[in-house]
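Figure 6 in text form: structure in, sequence out.
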């Protein structure tokens, strides 16, 4: 892969691999030896470089810091039992990367460049990919504006970077989630469909308030009426209601998740009806009461398939069935893991081999 791209490679003098505790991998805190970096200037991408992971020097006036011209992606790479390495559906993230760039007035990155730069970096640090179940190499591509200029206008220069690091599970237990009816993650015409850094900054106060009340995650609702489900924290919210897989349609307030798309494809393979539509909080509450809500989970790259233990709404907490007994999400998780770790045939062509 590296031979088709001109990447300057500077290897780390002494790998940190041996001193890394792979039995304790909190999400997002451990980084592999190398990172990728490129610059956008004069209308083109240049200076492709793989270098040791570490601090970089930037002007404090860069517009990413002041006006939030910044966005990211999240992808995972897996190690198979025979030592092969695959990245899960990076082509989908490449497309979403450019949708985010477009919304934030930032430059496009050719899709093949996105995939090739990630693959080149993963290849160099392939020893960092954990071999254990529920573990993977998390890949964090991101782009940010670098003009040292305080005028509110799109920057002319940018950096595209990729960080990678071994991770274990993001959530350690089924989640108590609260339906948020005051704050809003995204409104129509906003940037909910983009993986904009600002969307995550805006989510922190409501998430902290919910955590103070003992909840693990929020279910975001629509900005107008707070009646319809949008997403669950940093994951898409999916439900099995009366035998039908239901989830909010991927409109402009929703991040069009790769995991969501993958779950929908599997459900369709299995003949399970799928509805991408407005899902009201009222019908979920009704389903929780009458037992027709048989599965509920967040779907995301970091979150994987995160079971919902209970849904709180209007001061009532509705407990769902024991996650260990839920057939659908268990089958999704097993099927997905079998594909990602190379144990079963990848009939959809989701694994990008490195
Ligand atoms: N929704 C939001 C707001 C997210 O941050 C994520 C995580 O990436 C998702 C949904 C799930 O998307 P994906 O499955 O592509 O990781
Ligand atoms: C991911 O699932 O990759 C995400 O981006 C979630 C992250 C914000 C923790």
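Output sequence:
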């Amino acid at each position: 892969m590296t031979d088709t791209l001109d990447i300057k490679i500077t290897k780390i003098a002494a790998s940190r691999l041996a001193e890394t505790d792979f039995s304790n991998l909190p999400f997002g805190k451990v980084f592999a030896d190398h990172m990728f970096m490129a610059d956008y200037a004069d209308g083109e991408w240049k200076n492709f470089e793989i270098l040791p992971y570490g601090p970089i020097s930037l002007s404090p006036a860069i517009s990413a810091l002041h006006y939030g011209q910044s966005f990211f992606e999240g992808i995972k790479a897996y190690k198979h039992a025979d030592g092969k390495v695959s990245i899960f559906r990076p082509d989908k993230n490449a497309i979403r990367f450019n949708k985010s760039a477009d919304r934030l007035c930032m430059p496009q990155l050719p899709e093949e460049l996105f995939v090739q730069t990630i693959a080149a970096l993963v290849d160099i640090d392939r020893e960092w990919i954990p071999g254990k179940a529920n573990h993977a190499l998390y890949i964090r591509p991101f782009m940010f504006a670098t003009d040292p200029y305080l005028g509110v206008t799109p920057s002319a220069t940018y950096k595209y970077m990729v960080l990678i690091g071994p991770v274990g599970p993001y959530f350690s237990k089924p989640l108590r989630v609260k339906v948020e009816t005051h704050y809003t993650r995204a409104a129509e015409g906003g940037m909910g469909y983009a993986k904009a850094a600002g969307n995550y900054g805006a989510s922190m106060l409501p998430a902290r308030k919910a955590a103070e009340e003992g909840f693990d995650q929020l279910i975001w609702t629509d900005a107008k009426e707070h009646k319809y489900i949008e997403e669950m924290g940093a994951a898409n919210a999916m439900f099995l209601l009366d035998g039908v897989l239901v989830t909010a349609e991927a409109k402009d307030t929703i991040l069009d998740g790769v995991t969501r798309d993958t779950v929908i494809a599997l459900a369709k393979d299995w003949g399970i009806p799928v509805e991408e539509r407005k899902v009201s909080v009222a019908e979920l509450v009704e389903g929780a009461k009458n037992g027709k809500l048989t599965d509920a989970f967040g779907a995301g790259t970091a979150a994987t398939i995160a079971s919902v233990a209970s849904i709180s709404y209007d001061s009532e907490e509705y407990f769902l069935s024991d996650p260990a007994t839920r057939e659908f999400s268990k089958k999704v998780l097993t099927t997905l893991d079998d594909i990602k770790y190379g144990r079963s045939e990848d009939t959809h062509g989701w694994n990008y081999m490195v």
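Caption detail: The longest strand covers residues 136-145.
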